[in-house]
Amino acid sequence: MVSLNSVNSLQTAVAFAERKVQQDRDQVAQDEDRLDASRSLLQLDSQSLTKAQQDSSRAQATAAPRLSSPRLDNAIEQRIPSGVLPKPPTLNSLGQTIGQLINVEA
Question: How far apart are the first and last CA of the chain?
Answer without folding.
Answer: 137
